[in-house]
Amino acid sequence: MTEIRLHNTKTRTKEVFVPLDPQNVRMYLCGPTVYDRAHLGNARPVVVFDVLFRLLRLVYGAAHVTYVRNFTDVDDKINATARARKEAGALGTLEELIRARTEETIAWYHADMDALGALRPTLEPRATDFIGAMIAMIAGLIESGHAYAKDGHVLFRVRSYTNYGALSGRSVDDMIAGARVEVAPFKEDPMDFVLWKPSDADLPGWDSPWGRGRPGWHIECSAMSYELLGASFDIHAGGIDLQFPHHENEIAQSCCAHPEGQFARYWLHNEMLQVEGKKMSKSLGNFFTVRDLLDKGIPGEVIRFVFLQTHYTKPMDWTAEKAAQAEATLRKWRALTAGIEPAPSAAPEVIAALADDLNTAGAIAELHALASDPARLLSSAQLMGLLEPAMGAWAAAPQVDLTAHTARLSDLRAAAMVSKDFAPVDAMKAALVAAGVEVRMSKAGVELLPGAGFDAAKLPPL
Ligand SMILES: Nc1ncnc2c1ncn2[C@@H]1O[C@H](COP(=O)(O)OP(=O)(O)OP(=O)(O)O)[C@@H](O)[C@H]1O
Ligand SMILES: [Zn+2]
After folding, report:
1. What is the C-alpha to C-alpha distance for residues 303 and 326, in angstroms, rounded to an integer?
2. What is the pLDDT of residue 161?
3. Are 325 and 309 in contact (CB under 8 A)?
4. Looking at the structure, do residues 163 and 221 belong to the same domain, yes or no?
5. Per-residue pLDDT tens for 126-158?
6. Are residues 380 and 427 in the same domain?
7. Predicted pLDDT at 180
8. What does the pLDDT read at residue 179?
9. Cβ neighbours for 344, distance < 8 A, ≥ 6 positions apart
């Protein structure tokens, strides 16, 4: 059996992955809060852990892997979005608007992640379907002294869990000093975090022993993972931005509520998609959505390929150049494998690269080396969710021939060298860029490449 090694954030080492039960390998990924379209950064964990899901299915059998990714459909950000719509004159009660917003966002999410070739997880629980389990878990935590109720709120008593901070490697005192912990009159200690909070009459709320209210975000994942995967399971994944406080809080809640279990044994964190060195995020406003790119004509498969060229533990940028190169490679491979049946199994070198802590960049290098064996190239690429027939419509579009434009631009440039008037060169270059062409001019000559988002109809006349 293929040995999989994974970098476990909990131990900060690469470890051999040994599941608790090879008949049912269990993985949980923190899913989206469904209040708006997913931005490109949100798609990174989906693609990265989709590759892990595919690898686990290969090694243990598709029927022996349970992959859970939740939808957080109760959250203040969702409420705020619905409230803004109501204030803008939308019809219906706030509750109806909230429901409509979450339904709409989940449908967008599915469409966008399907376009990236991500398999649907085995289970996609919605937080609102597990409120009873959350209330039960909170009640248990109060009973065992790990939580307390005050003024309609329930708080987790952080100092009651001695291992708090172990995942992110910080002490509670460091965290207080560094983090923006909220001081509130209902808290015994500023580090304590909310398990339950009261809801106004017009906000979604559920009856509980502490009054009508709603759960905090962290308890949602603890309750859903317990209900669906048990008190001990194999892998918990998410973005590194969730390591503290979200995952630290999940561990504290789950380990205190279920001391008989170990909660998650391997923690995997993807690094951030960045824009000029900063995390792409809604709050910074430096984001574009997956849908923006798809609408610009960038195939989902190209987005996926760009992600997989960087190891998941490294920060990365999205650039038009990376997209153009990915598109050229995929186009070449699709031409090579057209009409060919995939080989019965993926190449061992590709499997070995993926099994080595998801070395997707290494696996892509191996794919390049398989150009002489298209059947193997196909089966190996498909293991990574690439070259799937259903995702290839974009590549069937006729390949553009830019030779005439290349010759014209070269002529203009040669003429400009003599006349010293570069305006005609600049004008043509600008027109080509506007049509989505990547223009490369060097001493060696002129090179034109149809970039992602290329539109032949916009090409300048010759
Ligand atoms: N820039 C990014 N790069 C990679 N992963 C990210 C990035 N931003 C968010 N994520 C991940 O996306 C997933 C969904 O997160 P969540 O729904 O909390 O995002 P959000 O609140 O909409 O985004 P933001 O962090 O932009 O406010 C999480 O696993 C999170 O770690
Ligand atoms: Zn979570």
Report:
1. 8
2. 97
3. no
4. yes
5. 999 999 999 999 999 999 999 999 999 999 999
6. no
7. 66
8. 65
9. 379
Q: Which of 462, 454, 328, 324 is nearest to 405 (CA)?
A: 462
256 labeled binding residue: no
Does the annotation place 429 within a ligand binding site? no
Mean pLDDT of 365-393: 97
Q: 258 labelled as ligand-binding?
A: no
The answer to whether residues 22 and 234 touch, using CB atoms and an 8 Å cutoff, is: no
What are the tokens at 58? 């290969």
Q: What is the pLDDT of residue 52?
A: 99
Same domain, 11 and 47: yes
Same domain, 193 and 277: no
Q: Is 443 annotated as a binding residue?
A: no
pLDDT digits (tens, 9 = 90+) for 293-336: 999 999 999 999 999 999 999 999 999 999 999 999 999 999 99
Quickly count: other Cβ atoms within 10 Å of residue 312's Cβ: 27
Q: Which of 221, 241, 284 to mutate to test the pocket of ligand 1 (most atoms within 8 A of CB)?
A: 241
Which of 346, 362, 396 marks a domain boundary? 396
Residue span of the structural domain in which 311 resides: 273-396
Q: Both 194 and 307 in a single domain?
A: no
Ligand 2 is an ion; its neighbours by CB within 5 Å are 30, 221
Q: Which ligand is nearest to the CA of 125?
A: 2
The pLDDT of residue 445: 87
How many structural domains does the chain have? 3
Ligand 1 site residues (CB inside 6 A) read 30, 32-33, 41-42, 44-45, 238-239, 241-242, 270, 272-273, 279-283
Q: Closest ligand 1 atom to the C-alpha of 35? A: 22
Which residue's CA lies nearest to atom 9 of ligand 1?
42
Question: Which of 207 and 437 is assigned the larger pLDDT?
Answer: 207
- Is the predicted ipTM greater than 0.95, yes or no? yes
CA distances 267 to 15, 35, 72, 117, 251, Å, are 11, 26, 20, 24, 11
